[in-house]
Amino acid sequence: MLHRFTRTSRALRQAACVTLLIGGALSGGASRALDNDADVYAAGATPAGTNLAPVYYQYAERDKVRANGNTVAKGSLRLDVAILRFVRFVDIFGYRADPQVLIPLGKLKASDEIASLGSCDGLADPIVAATIWLANKPAEGEFFGITPGIYVPLGGYDKNRALNLGENRWKYLLQTGWTTPLGNSGLSLQLSGDVTLFGKNDEFGPNSQTLKQKPLYQLQAWLMHPIDPSFDVRIGTSHFTGGRTEVDGVENDDWTKTTNLKLGFAWGFAPGWNFLALYGRDLSVHNGPAGIQSAEFPVAEGLLKRDTGEFQKGRRDMRKLIEPGFG
Known about the structure:
Layout lengths: L1 H16 L32 E3 L2 E13 L2 E19 L1 E3 L2 E3 L2 E13 L6 E5 L3 E3 L2 E6 L4 E10 L19 E11 L6 E11 L2 E4 L4 E5 L2 E13 L2 E12 L2 E3 L2 E2 L4 E15 L2 E13 L2 E3 L1 E8 L5 E2 L2 E2 L4 H8 L5
């Protein structure tokens, strides 16, 4: 019984302390910024000089904690987060790019069997990123981009707390994404892959231990089909693997192996206004919190401008600009 309690507590702490930020992810070690949605890389069609400042709301919840494929605790781990995103589209040496900053503010709370983990709120680690489109063919609907990103350790962090929105370490992301049409029906496919590299956290836990983590890899695939110019449906899946941690040189058996599925729609219900909704569920989780995830992303009108005046686009084109994700 003592062994099981110790193993459960360690799994909960590893899952919780490395829990991050935004992007609907609450799996230990599998923290990431914003999961791509169905056509974020199609934003390469946006003219240079466009400025964008959308605001997102995202909600995610996990209802169990798993270790080595087994459920070791049940309870709710809920994340509510608002994301402020500032983007500018520019041309660099003939290639379209979108340098941007994402600032997440959120609240993370544990309840039920894991209520002892407590809660936290405030600033999470900001992200600085930019997609560079190496293939940008709006007429053919084909796009290919590379996105480097850096997580800046400015979020709230207290080594004596089990839950933190900040990680107290630098993180580096490199992602590639490709979007292409499938036939003439409007159906499109987006494939992307990324790797996250982790700096060390030398203030991990009450004893100020040193946390290190192996690279974490992710693959994503999305299908999107427009019903009309203002409404589309989408389905996607993602798979994470890697991310094993070590504390003071001792490796943990906590490598990530998570697959999830998401369904959603996007609705441009008025000029300049968009509503996106996603419902997702983890299909399999080897280590960390598991369960339901869902998200909504409202966007305010009048935030999209160009240097030479208002830049107006159709509702479907505008959705490409405000899809959650780096592209």
